[in-house]
Specification:
The structure holds two protein chains of two kinds.
Chain A lengths: L11 E4 L5 E4 L1 H6 L15 H7 L6 E9 L5 E10 L5 E7 L2 H41 L4 E4 L2 E5 L2 E3 L1 H17 L4 E5 L3 E4 L1 H16 L3 E5 L3 H7 L9 E3 L2 H4 L1
Parallel strand pairs in A: 7-9, 8-10, 9-11, 11-12
Antiparallel strand pairs in A: 1-2, 1-5, 3-4, 4-5, 6-7
Helix pairs in contact in A: 4-5
Chain B lengths: L1 H12 L3 H11 L5 H21 L5 H22 L9 E6 L7 H12 L3 E4 L6 H11 L3 E5 L6 H12 L6 E5 L17 E3 L3 H12 L10
Parallel strand pairs in B: 1-2, 1-3, 3-4, 4-5
Helix pairs in contact in B: 1-2, 1-3, 1-4, 3-4, 4-5, 5-8
The chains are: A alpha/beta, B alpha/beta.
Protein name (chain A): STAS domain-containing protein
InterPro entries (chain A): Bact_StressResp_Reg, STAS_dom, STAS_dom_sf
Organism (chain A): Sporosarcina quadrami
Chain lengths: 246, 220
């Protein structure tokens, strides 16, 4: 059988009813991988689609399917099939518009970029959290001034998280030292949250239970307002400034 | 549920993410992640794949539906975000090299988060070399990999071989459409590989793990 469309710029195959390739033109050789059956040039994941749709003597217009290039890369194509009276068919492949593929890969790149940025943000967040934790620990040092006197100056804001972290480190330090009196200094505290103060209450009770005398110094009038809402001040000495406490 | 996924696939294909959200809210009786992911979204996406196979939709339509599904998952996870502290278990999830399907992977990441695991989701199509570097640097307890297409199998096996032999010897979970067709535990790294065909199985496995069972080979 001579091939009528040898010079057609689109890939064309002639097949029989078992989908075996009888002939192909130059454009087909250039565009797709080689094979004896139509199945050979279609991606294996697209075989069910080919099997279900291509039946003898059924004309097909635009069956979207993945074909394989000469280097076995996947190419999205539209398949057109028309049957002749000799029970053979001509199959034309039309590659999907390149601009569509460009847009699709561009979108993929953008979504990857977003995912990456998300990931970088996550890492930055983790670093920030570690730094914050470190900052909290550093913002309440336990300073032994004399044999039996220690000072805990608290810096920054006093919130739940901070008072919890402070409580753990301070209790350990105090327990391992020989001091009897602890001054907790609030001069460098800007703002106290009620719940942060509750955490501090636990710390103070714990220290008192361990036998320490607690002195609180450097309270600002706004701190006092928060403080008097709690009723745990009985066994604590309050002094105006650190100087008078010492 | 099948009727619902057919209806939902139509809404996905129309590209209307708000309508998708409202439909899901109407359909689901309770706010259960597995119900949404396994019983509604998964069959919906499978149905969309079938529509392509029947030549009723194009790849472009499929991409649109995937984007809407992705949005629905992100939105759900954003609203479900919990303030539970992370536990010390770490999982790294990614799609095998060349694999572009990622919806299942994203759902699996969410299930790990539900159990307070520290999660690194590295997305689809991660070159093996990069995966190896990430595993050595971050030392996850579990690596979860997926693939949908059968010809990713050799690459997936190679990945299992390489990653199972990294210093930390992580447990490797294989999911995705390919999962039921593979017998990984027989080969590359016996005792270290678990095939997880569904999210429910993953959920059960994590539940076991959270009750103190070892994360190695609870279900195999």
């Amino acid at each position: 059988m001579s091939f009528p469309n040898a010079s057609l710029p689109l890939p064309v195959y002639a097949i029989n009813k078992d989908l075996e390739i009888l002939q192909l033109n130059q454009a087909a050789i250039n565009s797709f991988t080689t094979g004896t059956s139509l199945f050979d040039i279609i991606d294996s994941e697209s075989h069910p689609k080919l099997r279900n749709n291509v039946q003898p003597f059924k004309t097909i217009e635009a069956l979207e399917i993945n074909a394989l290039s000469p280097t076995s890369e996947i190419l999205l194509v539209d398949l057109y099939i028309s049957w002749t009276e000799e029970k053979t068919a001509e199959v034309v492949f039309v590659k999907k518009d390149q601009s569509y593929i460009n847009v699709s890969s561009q979108l993929n790149r953008l979504s990857n970029r977003l995912a990456e940025t998300n990931f970088e943000l996550l890492e930055a967040k983790e670093t920030a959290e570690t730094l914050l934790q470190e900052n909290i620990i550093l913002s309440s040092p336990f300073i032994e001034i004399t044999e039996n006197l220690a000072l805990i100056p608290i810096f920054g804001e006093l919130n739940v998280e901070k008072s919890a972290t402070i409580a753990t480190t301070i209790t350990k330090r105090a327990y391992n030292s020989n001091v009897e009196t602890i001054i907790i200094d609030f001069t460098a505290v800007r703002h106290i949250e009620q719940c942060g103060l509750t955490g501090l209450e636990k710390l103070v009770s714990m220290l008192q239970l361990l036998g320490f005398t607690i002195i609180v110094s450097g309270l600002h009038p706004t701190h006092v307002k928060e403080w008097i809402k709690l009723d745990f001040s009985k066994d604590i000495k309050f002094v105006k400034s650190l100087k008078s406490a010492v | 549920m099948i009727d619902h996924s057919i209806k939902l696939s139509k809404i996905f294909l129309s590209g209307d993410e708000q309508a998708s959200k409202s439909y899901i809210e109407e359909t689901l009786s309770n706010n259960n992640r597995l119900l949404l992911y396994e019983d509604l979204l998964t069959p919906t996406m499978i149905h969309i794949g079938k529509l392509w196979e029947c030549n009723e939709i194009s790849v472009a339509d499929e991409h649109l539906a995937t984007a809407v599904c992705d949005y629905v998952i992100s939105d759900y996870e954003f609203r479900m975000v919990s303030s539970k502290p992370f536990n010390h278990k770490k999982v790294m999830l990614f799609g095998a090299e060349g694999e572009e399907h990622y919806i299942g992977l994203k759902m699996a990441a969410a299930v790990f988060k539900e159990f307070s695991w520290t999660v690194r989701y590295l997305g689809p199509n991660l070159p093996l070399q990069h995966a190896e570097t990430a595993v050595n640097a971050w030392k996850p307890d579990v690596i979860a990999m997926t693939a949908a297409l059968s010809y990713r199998l050799p690459k997936l096996k190679e990945s299992v071989k390489v990653l199972a032999n990294t210093e930390h010897a992580p447990t490797i979970i294989i999911g995705g459409r390919i999962a039921p067709h593979v017998m990984f535990d027989m080969e590359a790294a016996p005792e270290q590989v678990i095939v997880m065909p569904t999210l429910r199985r993953l959920h059960d496995w994590l539940e076991h793990a959270s009750k103190g069972a070892d994360t190695k080979n609870v279900v195999s």
